[in-house]
Amino acid sequence: MIFNVELILPAIILGSCIGSFLNVVIDRLSSGKSIVTPQSHCDKCKRFLTPLELIPVLSYIYLKGRCKTCHTKLSIQYPLSEIVTGLIFGYLMWFVINTGLSFVYWIYLCIIFSCLIVVIGTDLKKRIILDEIVFFGTVVSFLYILFFDPASLLSHIFSAFVFLGFFLFLFLITKGKGMGFGDVKFSFFMGLTLGYPQIIVGFYLAFLTGALVSLILVIGRVKSFKSTVPFGPYLALAMGISLLFGDVLWQTALRVLNL
Ligand SMILES: [Zn+2]
User: Fold this and answer.
1) Of 87, 125, 88, 130, which Cα lies nearest the Cα of 109?
2) What is the chain's mean pLDDT, rounded?
3) Neighbours of ion ligand 1 (CB under 5 A)
4) pTM above the 0.85 mark?
5) Ligand 1 center to residue 57 CA distance, Å?
6) What b/e string do you get for 169-178 counting C-beta neighbours within 10 Å, with b at 16 or more?
7) Were both Cys, which of 96, 135, 204, 207 would link to 101 (CB 3.0–4.6 Å)?
8) Separation of 32 CA from ligand 1 center, angstroms?
């Protein structure tokens, strides 16, 4: 196992900066605001943030989680997304180094995982999956496969349409109560990115974790069966895991099942 600190550390720092940007995307794009203007400010007193206050994670610690002027508590979402994105970028760097994958693949993974973080963020916060993010991710996946893995392009497109068809079917028979139309659109992105057989693993993981967490919430009386749980985060999580380990998990499943 190789641990290149000189590559992983910059990846973590870049990731935390991207995470800071993803917070802006999550908050502004989901409220229909521009992600470019106005510059970052305190939501309460509207004061523009100084460059020092824009440093990911460290500024939150330095400010002790409060705005310097009005002392309003800053959302934990900000440092959390920065830390998570930083760690993911770092881990992805470690992953591509240790599996002999290319630097281009690392960039591709970082873009896809950034999309997944935004999907999880907006679905948890506002119960929506942004079309812009799903569309962007789909285009990136398509272009990556087209240029770097053209032999498998058809199989990826095929799995995208099969998965989309299946979700559309689920959406129609549950009359949209089980999942939102955002999940249906997301399924195309997921199918295209994963391809076969990784999509089977992703599908299985999404339903398994979704059902498991729902069951725990219902038993713990946190939620009733009637209240809906956003499904997007499970899909996004399952997609991330399958993208990295789908192949290994599939081979293991075949071996265990003796197929
Ligand atoms: Zn303030």
Assistant:
1) 88
2) 90
3) 42, 44-45, 67, 69-70
4) yes
5) 18
6) eebeeeeeee
7) 96
8) 22
